[in-house]
Amino acid sequence: QVQLVESGGGLMQAGGSLTLSCTSSESILYLNSMNWYRQAPGSQRELVATITSVGSTMYANFVKGRFTISRDLDKNTVYLRMNSLKPEDTGIYYCHAIKPTRDPVGSIAYWGQGTQVTVSS
């Protein structure tokens, strides 16, 4: 079972920056992808950014040009650098990992406990 531990959330004024970290109990090279989701109060959880096992990255349109997802394989850690923060970025940010099964089209999803990000105006 993959365990994910998140850190780095906090309070920041609009225009500021925060970096979130997610450390995996298993080498992230063996995971199909690692992702950051967020959930604002009263809203559904939404995908923010993705990094695959080969290092490809993808971003939601609402964070393009502001957020950067990266990884450190030696530390089994994925980061989300958030620049130019806006009040609408406020929410709980969740680390998410997809691990392949023996079935080539199967996978198992794992979630971290979440870390709170609050952006004030």
Q: In a nutshell, what does this entry contain?
A:
The chain is mainly beta and 121 residues long. It has no helices and eleven strands.
Main attributes of the structure:
121 residues; mainly beta; seven-stranded mixed β-sheet; four-stranded antiparallel β-sheet
Please tell me about this protein's structure:
- Helices cover about 0% and strands about 55% of the residues.
- It is an all-beta fold.
- The protein is elongated.
Fold topology:
Blueprint: E1 4-7, E2 10-13, E3 18-24, E4 33-39, E5 46-52, E6 57-59, E7 67-72, E8 77-82, E9 91-100, E10 107-111, E11 115-120
Parallel strand pairs: 2-11
Antiparallel strand pairs: 1-3, 3-8, 4-5, 4-9, 5-6, 7-8, 9-10, 9-11
Strand content: over 45%
Gross geometry: elongated
Distance between the termini: 40 Å
Q: What's the total helix number?
A: 0
Query: How would you classify the helix and strand content by structural class?
Result: mainly beta
Largest sheet: 7 strands, mixed
- Mean pLDDT across the residues is 95
Estimated radius of gyration: 14 Å
| Helix and strand run | EEEEEEEEEEE
Write down how many β-strands occur, each being a DSSP E stretch of 2 or more residues.
11
Helix proportion: under 10%
Model regions low in confidence, pLDDT < 50 over at least 5 residues: none
